[in-house]
Amino acid sequence: xxxxxxxxxxxxxxxxxxxxxxxxxxxxxxxxxxxxxxxxxxxxxxxxxxxxxxxxxxxxxxxxxxxxxxxxxxxxxxxxxxxxxxxxxxxxxxxxxxxxxxxxxxxxxxxxxxxxxxxxxxxxxxxxxxxxxxxxxxxxxxxxxxxxxxxxxxxxxxxxxxxxxxxxxxxxxxxxxxxxxxxxxxxxxxxxxxxxxxxxxxxxxxxxxxxx
Length: 212
Ligand SMILES: Nc1ncnc2c1ncn2[C@@H]1O[C@H](COP(=O)(O)OP(=O)(O)OP(=O)(O)O)[C@@H](O)[C@H]1O
Ligand SMILES: O=C(O)c1ccc[n+]([C@@H]2O[C@H](COP(=O)([O-])O)[C@@H](O)[C@H]2O)c1
Description:
binds adenosine-5'-triphosphate; binds nicotinate mononucleotide; transferase; Rossmann fold; alpha/beta; 6-stranded parallel β-sheet; single chain
């Protein structure tokens, strides 16, 4: 089987002029998403992640488009504007860096960020539904081996996430919730499942309701 076409990252990150100010040693959570539209579920897991994983900041990476989703999302500027309007927190930054550097795959984004910011420690954040299909992502093992991962509970996906292919293969790298605050200081592979209070909102439901 031939590998899917994967264009190279176009622009070095530092040249893209899109990184917020950082300080050496900070731990920054990365919440990638289509945000089509952004909603209170995203806001909720961001706030929970800041607390639970001891993060200094979270960057929302508003994606040009999920490579696994058949339908394209709304235009990036529209999603950026909506994301900035809903996510108001002094330690959260909404970013379009993936669009700017031409990265579609998370493996490329994480590599680009780590190369551009060697003084920063990153934690990849995602909802439990994404953990369920994580083993289908491009170079998913290299993501797992290069960045600690914080997973937030989501209705309908809690049990499946814990039984997922990625969770089983990397069971040895599971971090108990009691050690969650140190996740960003740990060497990958390291992943932590946070059983936070859950919000049932989803972008697909909002789209189906015609709210967006
Ligand atoms: N209610 C929620 N609870 C927990 N995690 C969530 C929730 N909503 C979104 N997420 C997580 O936020 C990230 C970005 O999600 P995304 O922008 O795809 O929104 P979504 O609601 O999952 O969209 P869609 O319904 O179109 O799949 C993903 O890691 C997703 O798992
Ligand atoms: O890199 C991949 O193969 C890959 C496959 C599926 C999803 N992702 C990323 O996962 C994040 C969540 O995607 P989504 O569409 O569920 O919001 C977003 O940053 C996507 O780019 C990444």
